[in-house]
Every structure is written in C-alpha cells, then in structure tokens.
Amino acid sequence: LCDISGSMDLYSRFLLQFLYALQNVFGRVETFTFSTRLTRITEHLKGRPYRQVLKRLADVRDWSGGTRIGESLADFNSEWGSRFLDRYTVVLILSDGWDTGDPDLLAAELLKLKRRAGRLIWLNPLLGNPAYQPLTRGMAAALPLLDRFAPAHNLASLRDLAGQLRL
Fold first, then answer.
1. How do strand 119-124 and strand 2-3 relate by DSSP bridges?
2. C-alpha to C-alpha distances, 145 to 106, 109, 121, nearest whole angstrom
3. Alpha-carbon separation of residue 87 from 54, 72, 98, 105, 166 (angstroms)
4. Using an 8 Å Cβ cutoff, are 6 and 66 in contact?
5. Does the pTM of the predicted model rise above 0.85?
6. Beta strand 90-94 with 38-40: parallel, antiparallel or unpaired?
7. I need a surface site. Which of 68, 128, 155, 164 has the fewest CB within 10 A?
C-alpha cells in the first residue's frame, strides 16, 4: 500500500519502482496506491517495461492529493482484506504518515490488518533523516501496532528490508 499524496511526491515514484520490482519477482503480490482514495494497481505493474508502467499509472486519479490513510485502509480491509490477507501475508505500508484523517480510524484499520496478516511493516522515507521524529497524529496512532517501522529513503534501506519479506 503506497502513499502517493502530495507530501510523498519526492518519494512516490522511487517507491513505486521498488513495488514494481517486488511485483515482478515475487509470485503473489498485490499493489495499491492511496491518497484520498485507494486504487489497486497490480495489473498496471505486471510484466511490462517500467516506462509503460509509468504511463499506465497516469490513470491513478488522486496523485499528489491529500492523505486519508485510515479511510484508505478501511476501503482495503472491507473490499480486499478477506481476499488477500492471511497469516502468511506481509503487509507493507509506504508512507510518511502525514494524514488529515481521523487517527482513531487509522489505528482501528491497522489493528484489523494486524489481526489478519502475518506481519505489518511501515516504511517511512522520512525515517532516513537522523533528525526525524514520528510525531504526526498518523504515525503516533500507527507505531504501537507495527511489527517493524523502517526507513525507505534509498536503495540501501530497501535492501535491508529483504529479510523481512517472507514469513
């Protein structure tokens, strides 16, 4: 689940390239973007050159919009959760945690994810900055529910994640 809101503009294309690689290496990967709404992009990423993928992603309507993480997770849980989540699932959320929505809703929806999935990992590109502190309402609500909170600001940080992607 990749945040493509305005606050993630600096990172979203880089992180989507990472998700593109995951989608084409692992057998069972589902990929979604969110900003103010959730969009399934799995079919956009499969088996195509990355340049074609970028053109197809232009169809995603809320690129660089606001951020409503809790509502997007609620949409995922109600529409896709029972189909894609089980105790062998590793859920990756790629976001800076800047959220204009209700932090209680975010926490409740993360708890639903945590109960269904094997592992819940939040990758935050801001965590690569040594001065960063996860003080936003969204991050404060999310942190107690995460199995891992890790940086996602460069290739080295993503490479360090490799061992966490299998249960």
1. unpaired
2. 10, 10, 9
3. 32, 21, 28, 23, 11
4. yes
5. yes
6. unpaired
7. 155
Q: Name which of 98, 106, 94 is nearest 144 in CA terms.
A: 106
Residue with tokens 């809790």: 70
pLDDT tens digit string along 21-57? 988 888 789 999 999 999 999 998 887 888 888 888 8
Task: Give 2-26 pLDDT, tens digit per residue.
Answer: 999 999 999 998 999 999 998 888 8
Task: Count CB-CB contacts under 10 A for residue 54.
Answer: 15
* Percent with pLDDT over 70 in the chain: 99
What is the reported pLDDT for 97? 94
The span from the first CA to the last CA of the chain, in angstroms, equals 18
pLDDT attached to residue 86? 96
Please state, in angstroms and rounded to a whole number, the distance separating the CA atoms of residues 144 and 141.
7
